[in-house]
Amino acid sequence: MNLLPTHYQLALEAAIAASKEIMRIYENDFETIIKEDGSPLTVADLASSSIIQGFLEKTEIPITGEETEKSDFVNRAEWSECWCVDPLDGTKEFISRNGEFAVNIALIRDGKPIFGIITAPVEQQFILGSKEIGVFIAHFDDVHVPSKWRKIESTEKMNDPIVMVGSRSHKGGEMNQLLHKIEEISPNYESLCKGSSLKFFDLAEGRVDVYPRFAPTMEWDIASGQAILEALGGKVLDSNTEEPLTYNKSNLLNPYFIAYTKAAFQKLCVD
Fold it and tell me: What are the residues whose beta carbons fall under 8 Å from the beta carbon of 158, sequence distance 6 or more?
């Protein structure tokens, strides 16, 4: 049985091959350089990017991503589809060796993320999904055995107390508004911290209810997680407009956002 269309399968194999190379580097000594924007870069970022590009070029769908040369918006505006790639999401976590890093690949169509893959290289797991095929979690070893993939269903109930992945230190106007809503329902809510897009594993499986982000992120940080969460009925919303995040914009920087499971969205935003 082949669950995925060919180009999705290529993206999955790309993410896993890149993850394995990242782990090979992670388990040895490596150097870190600082890019012009002040963010760190390692040979693992570059190796992963090269591997993923090699796979995705076969799909003939253009690519945008953290370590990919960016096309001018005048060209990107003509794209109906593109891959959105973070070859090593959580480089700082990689450098600190805390294990909380990931690989993100999303397919964007008309500005919307329609399919996403996130790998957890240390755990050798992947999560992928779209509205058409559903959401699945599996081990790298089972990449070609979809019968062993575990299907994730929509989260119908929130945790009690509510669990938010983020930091209590990120308080301010928008965060305080969210905390007020949460405290009305769950005064003793829990707050957790986790690096990179690994948060979306927890959101997808219902271990976490809400993920607010009132700090800068780029499109490739979130696109795959949004595709997966939306496939489960969840939302990733601009904190100001309360509209879903969009992609392949002229400015690839995301607005501040809040990610909700289906149950959390219905309780915090609809009720």
Answer: 185, 186, 209, 261, 263, 264, 267
